[in-house]
Amino acid sequence: MDYLILGFLTGLSLILAIGAQNIFVIEQGLKKQYIFIVCLICSISDFLLIFLGIFLFQYLNHFFTPTIELVFNILLLIFLLHFIWGKIKTKVSETSFDVDSKTNNLSNIVVKTLGFTFLNPHVYSDTVFFLGNFSKSLSQVDKYYFGAGAAISSFLFFFIIGYLSKYFSKYLKSATVWKRINYLIILFMSILALTVLMEII
């Protein structure tokens, strides 16, 4: 049980950092669009990567070379720039506040969620390599507890920020507020893109 708590707290400390994936989940919550699907994809992805890292760390550690990390960073930068450009082109008048709005179809949202999840090298460094390295000396049983704790923190975090954003969205049904939110998202994503660019160069 101690390792379950340790895994929970360790996973939570890693996932609390503001990142592109978290911002995307919050945005979908505010828009009330496919929140459950987005949170579920992020949570399951983390679950798979966490246990992949915990049980295969000693093998994967040799493959995550600086070259592989560079490739992921370049792909993430391209993905972020594409997303930012899309937000810049979006007009606030096109934003719908309807719960059943389908301005973004499901396949598009799934692709974006997977992109924000698997094109981010920090997802691998946090879940696969940090947690894998951290738990490498644990016994087989303790690894299960540790991984379960980290996975639970991930599930709770994504669903809380997703549905908490949905709750607060009812106070944000204003074009002016949404314009400011859009600007903030562009600002955050631009900072993240700049950070990724600095890592590349």
UniProtKB/TrEMBL annotation:
Major site of localization recorded for this protein: membrane
Record key words, sorted: Cell membrane, Membrane, Transmembrane, Transmembrane helix
Bilayer-crossing regions: 6-25, 34-57, 63-85, 106-124, 144-169, 181-200
Keyword Transmembrane helix: yes
The UniProt record lists the keyword Ligase: no
Record's subcellular location: Cell membrane
Topology versus the membrane: Multi-pass membrane protein
GO cellular component: a single term: plasma membrane
Top-level taxon of origin: Bacteria
Coiled coil: none
Classification via Pfam families: LysE
Any one GO molecular function term: amino acid transmembrane transporter activity
Annotated PANTHER family: ARGININE EXPORTER PROTEIN ARGO (PTHR30086), ARGININE EXPORTER PROTEIN ARGO-RELATED (PTHR30086:SF20)
UniProt protein name: Lysine efflux pump
Organism: Pelagibacter ubique (strain HTCC1002)
Taxonomic path: Bacteria, Pseudomonadati, Pseudomonadota, Alphaproteobacteria, Candidatus Pelagibacterales
